[in-house]
From TrEMBL:
Keyword list, A-Z: Exopolysaccharide synthesis, Plasmid
Domain Bacterial sugar transferase, first and last residues per copy: 270-457
Keyword Transmembrane in annotation: no
Keyword Ribosomal protein: no
Family designation: Belongs to the bacterial sugar transferase family.
Superkingdom of this protein's organism: Bacteria
Ranges that cross the membrane: none
Name of the molecule in the record: WecB/TagA/CpsF family glycosyltransferase
Cited InterPro entries: Bact_transf, WecG_TagA_CpsF
Length: 463
């Protein structure tokens, strides 16, 4: 009778049921990072099985370049989570955009909330004496049902490794949070993870300090602008100056060099052209932008900017920015006007669309509504020249051939835009975009940019 290894069978069964977290390779960092929403990351972290997860920010990447042992610890981790604006910028250097900023200060409390509902317990190891206990007290008061399996400081409490591991294992903790600082916490877990029973272990940096209140976190509006590092620097300038000032410059310089190595000369020239022209346009057109914003606000008091999800290069979604040219309830009314489309195919366009405002008709006639997309170009979501950025529902209805237009970045202008815009049917638009994708050159881009001015003045197909 053939021997059956039930442990192997069980492991295989768990693996089959475990959600596979999507990752993205960032060439500028030479790293595979989680490309997921917060909820997707939490589900994957709490799924059956053993895993070790680290957060990667600019500081971590700098240390990884200098410390071979730390680099090995990072390579051995089961999950690397993107943390901070630096990593996001490094991705954009090569046109890669991650789904979310998964910093530990936001993600871990949300993870523990879900873990508490599942009856899981957590052990806090690290921080100055008393910090882990204070952090645990905060978590208990803010997370209903959360069980604290134990706490231990990262100073005298960390001296005896065997005692630390015995205490963690005796506690029966399901989750281990280690806050010993980078790179010590990652090195500690890399060396001792095989002796720890807790299925999930995370290196969490300064999380305990934030939870304990010994370090004040930046206000939400600062975090929203992705400038939390400036707040931290202002709080501890002497300790963090090197890390955030020279460190950030070093990080971006190395990431930039790596990113350039991934680009052809044509891609580099095209991106350089995008940045120079869009930045110049932003400055020169600032009076027009301000007047347009004022006109929109005065007409109905609604938002000035309209933001919408569009599909970019290789099917990657992004948020496009436009001046709002329709009523504030336009999205809710879209289904009711689909039958009025003047175009054949999946792309909706109606000359008599009742949702367009008076100001909207004027700014559409002269393509002023498209100008906020300069920000999309600077961010790397779009190029100056490329196919029209499509809605996800439109892409979902694409025939197979039309998917080829997603091979290049969408553009503010392009062959379709200078050839008649809405007067051109969907199938003809697709053929134009495919031809551009196959034969685009810098000279062609410059010619299309030049033709754009005539197309804007004529207003053909602009409604």
């Amino acid at each position: 009778m053939k021997h059956v290894d039930f442990n192997t069978v069980a492991t295989s069964a768990i693996s089959a049921l475990t959600p596979q977290l999507k990752t993205a390779y960032l060439p500028a960092l030479d790293l595979d990072l989680a490309d997921a929403t917060e909820e997707e990351a939490i589900v994957s972290l709490l799924a059956p099985g053993r895993r070790r997860a680290f957060f990667m920010n600019a500081h971590c990447c700098n240390i990884r370049r200098q410390d071979k042992d730390y680099a090995n610890a990072i390579a051995a981790a089961d999950m690397l989570l993107p943390d901070g604006i630096g990593v996001e910028l490094a991705g954009r250097m090569t046109g890669d955009k991650l789904a979310a900023n998964l910093n530990g200060t936001d993600l871990v409390p949300a993870l523990l909330t879900k873990a508490a509902r599942q009856g899981k317990s957590v052990y806090l190891f690290g921080g100055a004496p008393g910090t882990a206990e204070a952090a645990a007290s905060t978590l208990v008061s803010t997370t209903p049902g959360l069980r604290i399996a134990g706490t231990r400081d990262g100073f005298a409490g960390a001296d005896n490794v065997d005692a630390v591991i015995d205490d963690i294992n005796a506690s029966g903790a399901d989750i281990l949070l280690v806050a010993l600082g980078v790179p010590r916490q990652e090195l500690w877990l890399h060396k001792h993870a095989h002796r720890i029973n807790a299925p999930l272990s995370l290196a969490v940096g300064a999380l305990f300090d934030f939870l304990a209140g010994s370090v004040t976190r930046a206000p939400k509006w600062v975090r929203k602008t992705r400038m939390e590092w400036v707040w931290r620097l202002a709080q501890e300038p002497r300790r963090l100056a090197k890390r955030y000032l020279s460190g950030n410059v070093s990080f971006l310089a190395h990431a930039g060099v790596k990113a350039l190595g991934q680009l052809s000369m044509a891609d580099f020239q095209r991106r350089f052209l995008d940045i120079v022209l869009s930045a110049s346009a932003l400055i020169l057109l600032s009076p027009l932008l301000a007047l347009t914003a004022l006109a929109i606000k005065l007409e109905d008091g609604g938002p000035v900017i309209f933001s919408q999800t569009r599909v970019g290069r290789n099917g990657k979604e992004f948020r496009i920015f436009k001046f709002r040219s329709m009523t504030v309830d336009a999205e809710a009314r879209r289904a009711s006007v689909l039958s009025q489309s003047d175009r054949e195919g999946v792309c909706f366009k109606s000359r008599e669309d009742p949702r367009i405002t008076r100001v909207g008709r004027f700014i559409r006639r002269f393509s002023i509504d498209e100008l906020p997309q300069i920000a999309n170009i600077l961010r790397g979501d779009m190029a100056i020249v490329g196919p029209r950025p499509a809605l996800p529902c439109e892409v979902a209805a694409y025939p197979t051939r039309a998917l080829g237009r997603l091979a290049v970045k969408p553009g503010l202008t392009g062959v379709w835009q200078v050839s008649g815009r809405a007067t051109i049917g969907f199938d003809q638009m697709v053929e134009m975009d495919l031809a551009y994708a196959e034969s685009r050159t810098l000279l062609l881009d410059l010619l299309l940019i030049a033709r754009t001015f005539g197309a804007v003045v004529s207003g053909r197909g602009a409604y």
